[in-house]
Amino acid sequence: MEEILRALEVSAVTLSKMLKVRLAGYSESNNASGDHVLKIDMKADLLFGDTLKKLKCVKGYVSEEQVEFVDVNKDANLIVAFDPLDGSSLVDSNLSIGSIFGIYDGTLSGDKLVCALYFIYGPRLEMVVASSKAKHYVYSEDKWQFIQDFNLESKGKLNSPGGTQQHWSKEHKALIDSFFAKGYRLRYSGGMVADLHQILCKKGGIFSYPATSDAKSGKLRILFEVFPFAFIYEKAGGFATNGKDRLLDIKVPSLHASTPCFFGSKEEMKEVSDVYR
Ligand code: AHG
Q1: Among 133, 156, 115, 106, which Cα is nearest to 9's?
Q2: Average pLDDT for 252-261
Q3: What is the mean pLDDT of the chain?
Q4: Contact of 4 with 80, CB cutoff 8 Å
């Protein structure tokens, strides 16, 4: 595991430098989920994929940018699922984006997730790694430096509501409005890494990406986006649900399946469950 973390840390520094100097442009291809892929997504996918292929402890990996599972060492145990560059549509507007990783022991299911991490490419390069705790680091003076363990309060003040409002259900709109009515402030960039990172830094709140009339299973992918953040939020003292069930308990129907998802501190997650149950 440590070998994977050290290797990803190096690759993230490389990607961070690439993001500072390269202009992103649209490519001709689509990714496995049908999104239009930016060139920089593919560069990030290649970078992290090549890194993982060199590691003896990696059984294989699955990337948001690739349709199939990639075998590495059949005798190894650890499987990495990753989104190499989440929020890439924000590259042109120079907003913060990130890379998300889940490390699974043998099987791609929530109960086999042993570590989750993300890198956030903003004014600074930062990393959050969760195995027993959710640990926050910054890359400064050519090395990774520990900042803090994240610990969410039982409730927060931020509301980060994903999806197009026109396609929300009435119940979901009422839920989101109820948080605003209680004084929660809107914080939504359109990149889940930055939005979820902000809630962790500010010690609480709610991020939601519900089922909508145009996306019945939501938008965010279980293996690359949802499970890693569900794991990180639980390790930070929060919770993550699909409205009915704990996210880390849900089944994974296919590599690229998505799910409705809610992340946050415990009181907000209880309110979500009260509405969705
Ligand atoms: P992309 O990588 O295509 O930019 O998508 C970003 C993801 C996620 O990071 C974010 O929370 C969500 O899509 C935003 O979607 P909406 O714009 O539909 O709210």
Answers
A1: 115
A2: 98
A3: 94
A4: yes
* pLDDT value of position 9: 98
Using CA atoms, how far residue 83 sits from 45, 111, 233, in Å, is 8, 20, 18
Distance in angstroms (rounded) separating the CA atoms of residues 229 and 116: 7
CA dihedral 190, 196, 198, 204 (to 10 degrees): 130
| High-pLDDT (> 90) share of the chain, % | 90
Tell me phi and psi for residue 109, to 5 degrees: -140, 160
Supply 73's token pair: 């060492």
Q: pLDDT value at position 33?
A: 67
CATH for 158-276, options being 3.40.1480.10, 3.90.550.10, 3.40.190.80, 3.40.1360.10? 3.40.190.80
Atom 14 (ligand 1): residue with closest C-alpha?
190
User: Tell me: the pLDDT tens digits for 40-84?
Assistant: 889 999 999 999 999 999 999 999 999 999 999 999 999 999 999
Evaluate: CB of 95 within 6 angstroms of ligand 1.
no
> Domain 2-149: which topology?
Fructose-1,6-Bisphosphatase; Chain A, domain 1 (3.30.540)
- What is the pTM assigned to this prediction? 0.94
Ligand 1 pocket check for 131: Cβ under 6 Å: no
Domain boundaries, the chain: 2-149, 158-276
